[in-house]
UniProtKB/TrEMBL annotation:
Species: Beta vulgaris subsp. vulgaris
Signal sequence interval, chain numbering: none
A matching Pfam family: DUF455
InterPro entries for this protein: DUF455, Ferritin-like_SF
Highest taxon of source: Eukaryota
The protein's name: DUF455 domain-containing protein
PANTHER family: DUF455 DOMAIN-CONTAINING PROTEIN (PTHR42782:SF4), SI:CH73-314G15.3 (PTHR42782)
Amino acid sequence: MLCSTKIRCQHFILPKFKFKLKSFTSSSTSTSYHHHHHHQWSGLQLWRESPVNPNRAWGPQGPELPLKRDQVEIPSGPGSSLAELGALVLSTSDPLAKSQLSHFAFSKWSSEKLPIGLFDPPSRPARPSKPHLVPPKDIPAPKDSGLPLNAYMLHNLAHVELNAIDLAWDTVVRFSPYQEILGEGFFADFAHVADDESRHFAWCSQRLSELGFSYGDMPAHNLLWRECEKSSGDVAARLAAIPLVQEARGLDAGPRLVKKLIGFGDKRTSSIVARIADEEVAHVAVGVYWFFSVCQKMGRVPCSTFKDLLKEYGIEVKGPFNYSARDEAGLPRHWYDSSSTDEQSKEQLSEVYKRLADIITMENENANSSSHSG
């Protein structure tokens, strides 16, 4: 099981998650930070309440029901909790089976009201023999890949989506021992993200097949899982590295990919990519929501905590940024863009003013109680 080293923080007993008190500047600490100070994606509650999405095929008009049902083979016995189902997905190597099992797991948990449960995640997800994983610098350029540009871009996206299934389920399973602290909603959200990602992979895989190719036809990198491994003992770092950095990069890249695909003359693939990019807003919003929540529990100011974590874990944030999509997801600009310092100054000033107001209120109350007792 996971290391159960803990620290006390106010009235909470929190997993240590590698949060060392000395690694944070005084600007990171705030016992008065409130979650409602932050702009939240307007669609978050609707996304949470939406029924399980069965439209895992891409038809002439967009997402639709598959012609045949998924053939998911579940070993007898497993499946009594969300964490156990997640571990089963992580242990599945075949990409399509992983995608189908991910959907089955979320559907089963949703319909049968299973507990979150506890389970030990595999040290790393099971992978197929292809694609061959290489360093990012060794990924072939489009002209050397043997694939046309649209299939090349689609293969890269399919690889991201397959990794995203594992990243979401690893978050569910790995942090399942801390469900009393994080709350059931944390696990419900990331299981929902995993289901979305499995649907995205299914669309990419279908379209690759229509173009005469399949996932595994060219090498891919293991960068995404390396970022995940860095944060395996730190829930705040996991939220920073994956939804707030990696998934946010998807928001930046989406419109550029769509434009290139339209230029290439592949309207169908461009529609799939556009839909995936649109649905990724929810995943960044979920990360923002839970990052604020974890910071609140730990008495930390989210902005400076996010920046401290990026520095500690060597995570780089690079533009160009899709500001409108990031804003929609509720990701504050001054967290990742050094040119947006005015807003950060306002946030810090509002914190100072709030603390001053609290002190004045307390002093007034003390003065009043003293005069009454006198």
